[in-house]
Amino acid sequence: MKDRVVIKVAGAAGQGIKTAGLVLAKALKRAGYASFGYTEYPSLIRGGHNVFQVEISTQKISSVSQHLNILLALNEESVKLHRNELVEGGVILFDEGTFKVSEELAAQVKESNLNMIGLPLLQLAKDSGGTAIMKNTVSLGAVWKVFGLDLAILQDLIAELFNKSEEIVATNRKCAEAGYNHVSDEAASSTKLPKSDSQYADDLIIGGNEALGLGAIAAGVRLYSSYPMTPASSILSYLAKEGTRYGMVVKQAEDEITAANMVIGASVAGTRAMCATSGGGFDLMTEAVSLAGITETPFVVVLGQRPGPATGVPTWTAQGDLNLALHGGHGEFPRIVLAAGDPQEAYRLIQIAHNYADLYQTPVILLTDKYLAESYFCVDNLTGEPVPVDRGRLVTGEEAADRAEAMRYAITDDGISERWLPGSQGNTYLANSDEHTEKGYSTEEANEITAMMAKRLRKGDTIAAAVPEPDVFGEQDQPELLIISWGSNKTLILDAMEEFPDRKISYVHYTHMWPLKTERVRKLIDAAEYVFSLEVNATGQFTQLLSTQTGIQILDRKLKYDGRPFYIEELRTFISEALAHH
């Protein structure tokens, strides 16, 4: 089992919970630890209850625990809500300047063998020359003392992050020191971190949406159009800040319909473009998805999943939109559906999505979810092998002019036609949303309708032959236990598998959801002694898809649909019980 220390920063929206948690995650990484940040918050601007949970280990870690070692409570509600999550000997750091712990609560805490450390955050900040906004800096210093780490590491990071002036830097340093010194050595002794060999100091702390945004820049995207919708909203804010440095136009559209059609227009004109949304927004985009299908226009959309239906639970996680991605849009046309499992896949798959869209001139949908999009991972190599840009059969105006006729929708064996930029040569370019002939003219003739539909559907066969088999982690041939899953469950499953090093466990991880390759998983299912699938939805959408494509029924489906990801303790139990079946 991995050594794991967990701290939860909790309080009300507007108290800087996320900032404090992210600073901790980055500082711990600099101290040589692997850290993972997970955030929960309600659908409110201010108020409500927010948390940022940091998982800490001397080994790589990318999963969430149900249990805490330290709780940093910035209001009384946080103590009441989370004290039962603390392990025996855990520590509660609380802002005693904001609330007083009742005798009843203090007795309950003592009975649970927990340690409480009161922090007069505002007073310590003022004594250090700071203001109320620097209370969190004081609290971070106190946490650092409980960890038993070198204060200079935290102070140096804070100085880099809050460097508007030398005075602000100096004051923040003093505030961190005040919090550090306020905690006695005795009080801090119970939760010191195990010694680290500093192997993660040079790693990157990055969120899933940030990695996806970087991948879009690397893919050569020059238009990002979107209407904000959690959990895709931070792609918009990230690219508005970073994408414009690389010549990207970033547009907040008035609605999702506009965003999608802007992408199609830009794509027809030869620009790599994309949009992102969540389930409700994708509902509105489905007409545009069909438009891209019949006009054979490259179209890339990121679908960040959250619990539905309707508004659902906007700020929590789910994998309930796979069927929407597979079937959204009217009529029949080929599409590609991808799903990212970690920041590296988000970075890489968005580039592959744009190549696929250009190569096959069809819609490509990349699925993420709130858990991946808004969690923060410790990554040593984000980029991996380069993904060369491939624009497919996009020909120059001169090349198109050599053709005797302008056959934008020329019928070909593989279903893919040449395309060129409208106006780049004398031949007419028609991108027609009515059924059309090879030249793009509207038609209602039966033989032409049949031929063009068959032509587009042949692209589906071409795509199916090109997409890869799923990745297999762990045992490659004869597993005792086979786990089948997709998306952001990847990091959790890999973390859990490491706790069973002597058992033959296989994990089949799907990134290419459609078209679906099944040869490898069939062989492993036949060879495995026990199989279960795992999804964050109520109906096992991917398990059903796999069954329709293989005829194999997976009877043990681990499903969760309460807005939370699977916890490491839950998966540990699933694996232990499955291994006990034989």
Automatic annotation (TrEMBL):
Coiled-coil residues: none
A Pfam family matched in the record: POR_N
GO molecular function: oxidoreductase activity, acting on the aldehyde or oxo group of donors
Residues in Pyruvate/ketoisovalerate oxidoreductase catalytic domain copies: 13-181
SUPFAM superfamilies: Pyruvate-ferredoxin oxidoreductase, PFOR, domain III, Thiamin diphosphate-binding fold (THDP-binding), TK C-terminal domain-like
UniProt entry keywords in alphabetical sequence: Oxidoreductase
Domain of life: Bacteria
EC number: 1.2.-.-
All residue ranges annotated as the Pyruvate flavodoxin/ferredoxin oxidoreductase pyrimidine binding domain in the record: 215-454
BP GO annotations: response to oxidative stress
Name the record gives this protein: 2-oxoglutarate oxidoreductase subunit KorA
Origin species: candidate division WS6 bacterium OLB20
